[in-house]
Amino acid sequence: MKIAYVLNTYPQPSQSFIRREIQALERRGITVVRLAMRATDQALVDPGDQAEAAQCHYVLAAGAARLVFALLACGLRAPLSGWRAFLLAMRLGRAQSKRLRHLIYLLEAAYVTRVTARVGCAHLHAHFGTNATTVALLANALGAPGYSFTTHGPEEFDAPHALSLGEKVDRARFAVAISSFGRSQLSRWAAYGAWPRIKIVHCGIEPARFSAPAPVPEGPLRLVAIGRFVEQKGLMVLIQALALAVRAVPDIHVSLVGDGEMRADLETAIKAHGLYENVTLTGWLSEAGVRTALVESHALVLPSFAEGLPMVVMEAMASGRPVLATYVAGTPELVVPDETGWMVPAGDAQALADLMVEVAALPRTQFEEMGQKARSRVLERHDIDREAEKLAQHFADAIAENTE
Hints:
Blueprint: E1 2-9, H1 16-27, E2 31-38, H2 47-54, E3 57-58, H3 64-77, H4 79-96, H5 99-119, E4 123-127, H6 131-142, E5 147-151, H7 155-158, H8 165-171, E6 174-177, H9 180-189, E7 198-200, E8 222-226, H10 235-245, E9 253-257, H11 263-272, E10 279-283, H12 287-295, E11 299-302, H13 311-318, E12 323-326, E13 341-344, H14 349-360, H15 364-381, H16 384-401
Parallel strand pairs: 1-2, 1-4, 2-3, 4-5, 5-6, 6-7, 8-9, 8-11, 9-10, 11-12, 12-13
């Protein structure tokens, strides 16, 4: 089986879950052709990401002339399909008032169509229901094989109509959600007849990379937050909560692992609240560095306003660390209150501060007991090889159904 993965900017430091999925499929003997629109402008510090970038075929790097030639070639080969694909691109672009951008997506789709025909791909799969799925949809309209796509949230769920998310599900061979919450959201916009084709395939971890949990550290409460520094992650609320919590427990420490557009705002807030000694900003770390940060902490803190089903929660739980999280999206499907972690309402700095003070008083044995339960739960639900087996079967079924 040969599958083309259609991706936007790939690989990126925050998307190691895609790499793990691809590699798990390859361990099952599936050939995966990586068709990314562009390379990231972020530094890739993880060797796995660096190796993955070397295997990518970057569509926009082919240049405008080759993309235009690809579209002309598709139009000459099948004029009616080419015209219908053009009209489809313009209609999808009208929904976002971005027709020029969708013309570029059509050029990218034509190039993808040519490449997949040349190498013999039987199916296209995209990640995120945004522009990568638009390219896969348009490539299919131009004559490429059928497509599927994985939605993660929250971006897709913030603008379902502008992204034509329902139509993307309706036209797909199947669609994937990474949680029950995600499936419920796709069901809101897809035709009822498409519901059986909405599958749940979790993002996964590689259990072998998570050996028996290290002992919980001695000393004051150490929390770690991991992810992009963007609004949806709720990190400003975390800083507000920490400023409240240190009034009662002055030695709580939080490490912020990641980077992004809100770094300057976070640094300003840390300075304003006098939290220099309570917060460390590490920047992006490799996967090994993230695991070390988790091992050195008592728990993960995830103060997000919106999520899909966070990989960092899975990694923390696999490392034997409980999670302080908010009641959003798919997170409650993993974090069981007072069993594998704790939960508070999103955006409530006082509730998070109170929880931090409460957790700071717990004995190490309670962290370890909860960490063991967390580890068992995530290993049972999110083994990447088991999840890749599900996805591979969906690919095989879709291909077989469309070749009968």
